[in-house]
Design goal:
Layout (H helix, E strand, L loop, with lengths): L25 H8 L6 H24 L8 H20 L11 H14 L11 H22 L2 H6 L1 H27 L3 H12 L3 H13 L8 H27 L15 H9 L6 H5 L10 H35 L8 H22 L5 H17 L1 H27 L8 H25 L7 H10 L5 H6 L2 H9 L3 H36 L7 H15 L6 H6 L4 H7 L1
Length: 568
């Protein structure tokens, strides 16, 4: 029987073709790349293309017509696959003297294009409920990973800086925005502060992955910068959303169509929608309970106090719940369990998803994100050596959900929501606010012992906006339409939405790029000790297998000349 390989010419087999060197002609390199069997770049490209095709073919074989173009499933698959490709293309872009761009930038752009470019705007078919749920799962995974990566000693040392970084930039940008809106856009004071709180929140969805990427490379870890920024970002959102809820109730308290018309408290649904990174719709708002500005004066005062205190209460609840669950994970599973690492990964991820979704069911949605971070942080204190293994597996899961989160965030940005008459003045308001926010961020960390470069990096990392703006940007307009207020009030609400969309379009990609590119330039890289370096070397050696002795290796070793002469 003939050898199957005999049908293929000898010069088509990779084992019979000499691998071209770096200086070989291009045609020779191309010829080598396509010899059999597939290998190198051609093999990786073919494998990835096959995986992308199967990502649609497998669901189609199960669901049939529900996966055809124009359906929800097809839109989700198309966006996620496009984001995988977009993230890869951006990551391989080489800018002289700068590190590679972060992949999430390409994912945001891919999602945005599939929503707004005619002919390929398949993202418009995605069911908002599916999008919201998938982004919430992705958010819970990255929050759990963030908690695992927090440095307890650094956080304890910088708790004052964390509080200042949470409050000072947010409040300064809000006040600046209120003043500029008053004199540039002609907003009433309450609407200026409302827009200020919308713009003042940063997005953990961009900040956390970018900072974790730098932390894995060792940048800023000795100074605790990733820990500081990640911890402060979650508190910053709750502060901004709570302030927005209070001002929203005040702004619409006199805008009801009749004395008996009940106004709306949006705090619960706003925060829930923010954590899901999903804009609110009129249908969602119509289901809310009217509690913030009731008819009677006594109830009005009491509910206003509760609205103001709700943010801090949800912070406390989130921290307490996170600590309790984290303590449970100290003892379950047992350390001598055969599958301890596996069980810990499953438990910490499950609890992270549970607290994020469960907090909405009990009407305390703002507590979910903090609980997810705190529970993994507390659990990791007891895990010690297993912490790195658990974090590694959670990181693999995040790699799968990263294009889901950023692709669907990009797909939420609609150019149709932009009002051309507001764009120019809105940009002025946005950039003035960012300028004062930078000053506030620099001031907040001035007494924390950081160098000038590190302070500049923290200011840059405190700029990206996306999830909060996508969630609460449309709330004022939806509320105005529901209450049938005057056209003037509705116009204010439309301008709030326009500027919120502008902030996402500008700060999300630029902020992600600024963090990824400036980190290696502005932060100090941790210097591994000799012990840790030896451990890393042993880990690498164990992964690669036993080292083979070769002539090349022996030639690299220095041999005294006397020994050579003796051997001769």
């Amino acid at each position: 029987m003939d050898d199957p390989k005999s049908s293929c010419p000898e010069n088509c087999l990779v084992k019979n073709v000499l691998k071209p060197g770096p200086d070989a002609p291009v045609c020779q390199k191309i010829k080598y790349a396509f010899v059999c069997p597939p290998h190198g770049t051609v093999e990786r490209f073919s494998t990835n293309v096959l995986l992308l095709l199967l990502s649609w073919a497998v669901p189609w074989s199960i669901l049939g017509d529900d996966c055809l173009p124009g359906t929800n499933i097809f839109g989700l698959i198309a966006v996620i696959d496009a984001c995988v490709v977009g993230g890869f293309l951006v990551s391989i872009i080489q800018i002289p003297h700068l590190p590679p761009l972060p992949p999430l930038l390409g994912m945001l752009i891919a999602g945005f294009c599939l929503r707004n470019i005619p002919g390929i705007n398949v993202a418009k078919y995605i069911d908002p409920n599916w999008s919201s749920a998938l982004r919430s799962i992705a958010l819970s995974i990255i929050l759990v990973k963030a908690g695992l990566e927090l440095d307890a000693s650094a956080l304890k040392k910088m708790k004052g800086a964390c509080i200042r970084l949470t409050a000072l930039p947010c409040l300064i940008e809000t006040a600046t925005c209120a003043i500029t809106c008053r004199f540039i856009l002609g907003f009433p004071w309450e609407w200026g502060f409302m827009l200020g709180f919308v713009l003042a929140a940063v997005t953990p969805a961009v900040i956390v992955p970018s900072l974790l990427s730098l932390q894995e490379q060792g940048y800023g870890t000795d100074q605790g910068i990733p820990t500081l920024v990640i911890a402060a970002s979650s508190f910053d959102d709750v502060l901004a959303i709570s302030g927005f809820s209070v001002v929203l109730g005040i702004a619409f308290s006199q805008a009801s169509t009749s004395p008996n018309t009940e106004s709306i408290s949006l705090n619960e649904t706003i925060i829930a929608s923010t954590l899901a990174s999903a804009p609110l719709t009129t249908d969602m708002i119509s289901k809310m309970e009217a509690t913030s500005i009731p008819v009677t004066n006594g109830q009005e005062a009491g509910d206003l106090v509760w609205t103001i205190l709700r943010g801090p209460v949800e912070m406390i609840v989130g921290i307490v719940v996170g600590i309790l669950i984290g303590l449970i994970l100290w003892f379950l599973p047992a350390k001598n369990n055969t599958h301890t690492v596996r069980d810990r990964v499953l438990l910490v991820i499950s609890f992270g998803i549970f607290v994020l979704f469960g907090s909405r069911q009990v009407k305390f949605p703002g507590a979910g994100a903090l609980a997810a971070i705190v529970l993994s942080f507390v659990a990791a204190i007891s895990w010690k050596s297993d912490k790195e293994k658990v974090s590694e597996y959670v990181g693999i899961l995040w790699d799968m959900f990263e294009p889901v989160m950023f692709g669907l965030i990009g797909a939420e940005i609609s150019i149709e929501a932009l009002d051309s008459s507001t764009v120019g003045l809105g940009l002025a308001v946005l950039f003035i606010g960012l300028l004062t926010r930078t000053v506030g961020s620099f001031t907040a960390v001035s007494a924390a012992g950081f160098t000038l470069k590190e302070k500049v990096f923290i200011c840059l990392s405190w700029l990206p906006k996306a999830t909060v703006q996508a969630a609460i940007g449309p709330v004022a307009l939806d509320t105005a339409r529901k209450l049938s207020v005057s056209s003037e009030i509705e116009e204010y609400a439309r301008q709030v939405l326009t500027i919120a969309v502008l902030s996402i379009l500008i700060t999300a990609p630029l902020g992600a790029a600024a963090i990824g590119l400036s980190g290696p330039k502005l932060l100090q890289k941790a210097v591994a000790s000799s012990d840790s370096a030896e451990e890393d070397s042993l880990k690498v050696s164990s992964l690669r297998g036993p080292r083979r002795h070769s002539l090349k290796h022996e030639e690299n070793e220095s041999i005294p000349l006397t020994e050579i002469q003796t051997d001769n």
